[in-house]
Structures are given as C-alpha cells and as structure tokens.
Amino acid sequence: MANARPHDVSVARPARSGWTGALALAAAGVCGVAAFPAAGQLREQQTLVVYDSRIADSKAIAEFYAGSANVPGGAGSIAGVHSGVIALDISTLLTTLSTPAGVVGSGNSIVPDIDYPTFKTYIRDPLRAYLTSQGLERRVRCITLTRGIPHRVQQISTGANPLNPTIGDNPGMINNAFTAGLGGNLTYCSVDSELTLLHQSLDTGEAGNSADSKVDGMIVNPFWRATVGINSYTTRYIASAKAWAAPGGSNNGIWWVNGTNPALTTTLTPGAMYLVCRLDGNSVADVTGMITRAQNVSWPTLTGTFILDSDGSTLEGTGNPPALDGGADYTLARVALQVDARFTPLNAIKNSATGFTGFVVGPNADYSSATNGPPIVMSAPMLLVASYGANHNGLNGLNGADNGSNARITYGTSFNYLPGAVFNSIESYNGRAFGGLGQNPFVPQQQAADVLAGAAGATFAPCSAWEPLSISAPDNEQIAKNFFLGNMTWAEAAYTSLPALSWQQMVVGDPLARPRRDREDVNADGRVNIDDLYAFWAAPVDLNNNSVADANDFNLLEKTARGLEAAGMKGEQR
User: Does residue 476 carry a pLDDT above 80?
Assistant: First the structure.
C-alpha cells in the first residue's frame, strides 16, 4: 500500500501483517470517575484562549472571540463572541530563559514550524506553569490557539538519515525510516496535539532511539469514541505522571496504549487531557468569518447533505489495529445518520466509484479540462464533506497531472457549504498551510485553510499538520454521532473522532459551537429545551422522517432537550 500510494496518509504503514501482533492490545476502557451526570458540555469558563499580542492577527482574533475586556490593547469596544472565556497573552509569560514565551519571527512575523526544544521552552512549559500558578489546571478543559501560534513541531533529529527535522513532509523519507527500522522513532507532531497532554513531559528519556520516550509515535486517545461529554470525567489526576505500554514487537514506538491502575493516578483518562483547538486560517477575515458561521447554527435536517466519497478501497479503516482503527468509517458514518433518520436518510450519501468520473466535486469549479472526466458534480447544500481527496485513485499524480485538472487542490472549495458544515478529508497534509506555510511541494493537496476561507466556506475541520499514517485519520462516525446527532460541542465531538494524541492532528473551528437541528426547535424560539417538549404535543413533528409523528420522535427530542438542559446546569470541573 505504501508503494502504491506514495502520497497518501498510509504512506508509512508497513504491510498489514505488521499490525496483526497488536490485535489484543486495544486501549484500556477505563473512563475515570464521573464528577457529573453524563452529557456535561464544555463551557466558556473552561476555555483558555491563547494569543500573542506581538502578532496583530493573533490579538485581533482573540479580541473578536473573547472580547476587548479580555484583550488589553485591542480596539476596545468589541463584545466578543464568547466573553466568558479566559484569554492569555502568551508573550506576558516569562520562560526559564527570562525571555517572553511564544514564538515570533523577524518583525513579529508568524513562525509556523518550531523544533522541540523551542516548543518546550516557549510554549509547553510556560502554559503548564501558568495554569498551575493560577489554579486553573483542573478548571480549564479546552485550550484554543489563535492564528500566529506555531502549528508544527519538527522531528527531533540526531543526525541519523533519514530522520531530518522535516521528514514529516517527505513520504519517501518516511518509507525509508520504516525500512531502516526507525519507524518507532518519529517525533514530529502538531503543536496542538502535543499540548493535549500538557502536564506530561513526553520527551523524558529521548535519546534518538525507537521507543525511548513517549514523544516517539502516537498515544491512544482515551476520549476516542466516547459517548459522553468531557465534563463526565474527573480532572483530579491531570497533573500526575501517566504510564503507557508499548504494543510489542516492531510496533514499539509507533504507538502507545494506556496503562491502568485502580487508583487512576497513572491512568490516562479523558479527565487528564486538554481539548486543544485552533482559530486559524489564511487571514483574520477568514477566521472571524468561520467563527461567525459557527454561532446560532440551525442545521436544516430535510435538505442538509452528507457526502462520504471514497474510491472503494479501505483507506478509511479496516479495524486493524483495534487500538486505533474503528473500522470502515464511511460506511459506519452513513449507517449512523440513516438509522437515526433525523436528517433525511437519502441525503447521507456514500460514493465508492473509482476513477475521476467517480470523484465527487461541487458546482463552484470547472473541471472540464480533465482528460478523464467529467467528475460527479453535487450541488446540494453540504453539512459534511468527507473525501479521500488527493488520495482518490482518480486524482493520482502530482498536481493532478494525470487528469489535466487542479482538482486535487481545489475540490474542497467547490462545494456549497451550509453554516456549521464540516470538512474532513483523508489527506496527509491538509493542515499544512496555516501560518502562511502553504502547500507541501512534494504532495500538493486540498488545504483546510482554503476550504474554511471566504463567506461561504466550511465552518469546522479536523486536519493534519504532517504525515499522520492512515490509522490516525479522524472518524466521521463519531462526528456524525456526537456532533450532528448528539449534543457535544465541536471540541468534544472532534476529539471523540481522533484515535491518537501527541501526533499530527489539529481541530480547527470554534470549540464551543453548539449547533442545533432545526425541526427540534418546535416552538421556534432559537433554542431546544423543555419548552419544546410541551410544544411537541401541541404540534407533533416527524423528526425521524418515517411519515408519523409519534412517541419515537418525542423520545428523540427529549434526549436532546434533557441533554442540553443538563449541560447548562453544570458547574466547573474540579
């Protein structure tokens, strides 16, 4: 598979037989002690927004999101979309070097890539010290980074070829690393994912060898596939050192599974991690537009469309290894949407046609120049675009050279997106371009930053900063169940979709966004609560699209209303 698709997210995956030895080492299912009843949603007071006042874009986005009262030196009159969050100017924190925290370039320019020592000294350690000194380490559940904060940490290089600082950008070198037995010594990561385990010094013991520290490879996410919100897990042991076990054999260092103990002190539970999200894009206007689209969203359940576009291969998962792979994700996502049926079941579409004539695009780009087209054009208003993207077999070849079009780098921007829409492609470098970094010259692919841009762009996107391997691809099934069909905020739902932490993924978009399904707002007051339960009996609504408005529809509505009501009454996690 690696040789067949040198540019896809499975580029460094060994032959499938290489994973079979880890089948029995699924992540331990220890959830922690529930401090609240299930369904407690993330709150403003639990969200830390990190900006750098030396970077104008960073400060402007923080002020738009958190309000002028929380961002000294701003415009001074902006109310803020979420004025209850905690805002931190990272440049006001001093590092052990007695210099300001945060990272800026010449003239206070944005620096997208940093090495691990810089990450530790200027981002991780200052944030850890701040939360501890302010007594916020257990109150804060979400850290939100703004445009200007670096998003990529380079490979820790010991000079051993091919482990150079930017190996994560080069599929060929990653293949060479696995061939040379260095697959368990990959330390490159996204800043965001590494900060999820802020209180863990993952680089302890790192000396350039495979599996000599937990910064090697990825750590199984304990919140992956969760069905309850982050406040259902205690933060009591967030600052205690955790223990992880290696899966064994040649997989050591590629990933780590959760160790457990009855006291939970060394067990990694969802209460011991942060949901790290990002408000980032090509410009301040793009980011503020993305934030605006996330507010007061009412998803149209009768017309909103979900496209899950594969090429018939198993890139989205086979269930192996079970610690990281949930199975045929596109099929599972479609089944979840169709069985629930609150969104019109026929609008949950899975396409598995091959070739460029089997590739799905939107109506807002012209691919008539393609030599092997035309593609499938879908004009419907989109709530989810899940696609193999440049890894679709109809788009093989750098920059679409084999079909005479630029579809591989523009297909995502061709769709009609509804407010509150999610873009989730299985592409290795769809999150590279933030900070002005741009396309990967080796592997140009659709950039999430471009899909989120403009007044009609998507609103949310999970994406990858470097080559992530296909086993860590975000799951659409969990986004469907917990976001579109559930009551979780974007941050919570997105992190239930991520199999791994301390790896390559980023979650972009307003973490506190809580869209609603339009027909559940029975009394049309802009909210879904207990009042809608009373209104339902006066004017029943066929929520599950079976042509009958009955108790089954009421039960669906009650699940939503009670869940949101409980979330609104939650106190801060302690």
Answer: yes
* Nearest Cα to Cα of residue 191 among 148, 147, 217, 153: 153
Mean pLDDT of 263-285: 96
pLDDT at 37: 31
Percentages (nearest 5) of helix, strand, coil residues in the chain: 30, 15, 55
pLDDT, residue 538, reads: 94
The H or E element that residue 278 is part of is strand 275-279
Quick one: average pLDDT of 54-81? 95
Closest alpha carbon to 307 in 330, 338, 328: 330
Contacts of 298 (CB under 8 A, 6+ apart): 515, 516, 517, 518, 521
Please tell me the number of Cα atoms within 13 Å of 200 on its side-chain side: 27
Amino acid in position 154: Q
Cα–Cα distance measured from residue 426 to residue 445, given in angstroms and rounded to the nearest whole number:
10
DSSP reduced 3-state for 541: coil
Planar angle of CA 36, 222, 137, nearest 5 degrees? 60
Mean pLDDT of 441-447: 93
Q: How far apart are CA 489 and CA 309, in angstroms?
A: 25
Handedness of CA 345, 348, 354, 357 (dihedral sign): positive
- Dump the DSSP string for 6-19: TTSTTTT---GGGG
Tokens 């879908």, residue? Answer: 378
Compute how many other C-beta atoms are within 10 angstroms of the C-beta atom of residue 135.
8
- C-alpha span between 167 and 188 (Å, rounded): 8
Q: Which of 508, 132, 465 is nearest to 291 (CA)?
A: 508
pLDDT at 36 over 70: no
Please give the Cα distance from 385 to 247 (Å, whole number). Answer: 34
